[in-house]
Amino acid sequence: MFPSRPVRAQPIPTQVGIGLRPAHVAHVLEHRPAVPFFELHSENLFCAGGALWDAFDAVRRDYPVSLHGVGLSLGSADPLDPAHLAALRELMRRAEPALVSEHVCWGAIGGRHYNDLLPLPYTDEALDLMVARVAQLQDALGRRVLVENVSSYIHYTHSTMPEWEFLATLAERSGCGLLLDVNNVYVNSVNHGYDAHAFIAGIPAAAVGELHLAGFTRKQGLGGPLLIDSHDRRVDPAVWALYDYTLARLGAQPTLIEWDQDLPDFAVLEDEARLATACLDQHRPDERGLDEHHPDEHAHAGLAALAG
């Protein structure tokens, strides 16, 4: 049996949280750092108990938490895996997270998982599939979920709409929210040659429930620069600038620092969160003191504050 005292979900504040990885759990439990919220990967908690669940259970008593899925493969041609869906539903019941999220992607076909978040073609057919899958997921969980835009290194020549239009329509038709990964927007803008600001401008502010920030790796591809969403270093200055622009366009949003490989000391993540907080604070309605109909002014003000 699963032993747990009832814990009511604490709402995610409009502040900057950190993605909690197993290597940092002991530090968090010992030092109780002043982090507004933590995010954990859902699949790591598909267990009836054990050391990791006990640690998570302790964390969620002191901090708001969100759960971020990476394995449901919402956009696959295969049906959703009923065992995975049942495990996620049970985890939601037990954990009572404030936010639940997944990805706009596919990663499994024919029962084989590819250990990656693979992009979809942006077509009406793929959109209809994603609307149906997100509706199935939300019905199964009994709650609204957020879906995240993924980084990609290929594009489909038969796509009929830009990615931001696909996401906005998906949110409108399914009633889901969007987890907007600002790093992924920038990575894809370089890899596929589009305007990152146009992407942000095409996202409806009311649909956004959270933002992600992470670091990328610069490579040289056959056709020019190639950015890899590696999550193994600090946020790039270009992504900080795009984050500031995003806040100016969409308003202050809960934000998460992600770091998944070559994990640094926890203090490095706290420093990244501090930088994001300085930017976020410039865009709170009661603090920015600027005409809200001029987002470019907000962007310039926020960048100046971050640089200072």
Automatic annotation (TrEMBL):
Q: Which residues form a coiled coil?
A: none
Report the family membership: Belongs to the UPF0276 family.
The name this protein goes by in its record: UPF0276 protein AB7878_08805
Native organism: Rhodanobacter humi
What does the record give as the organism's lineage? Bacteria, Pseudomonadati, Pseudomonadota, Gammaproteobacteria, Lysobacterales
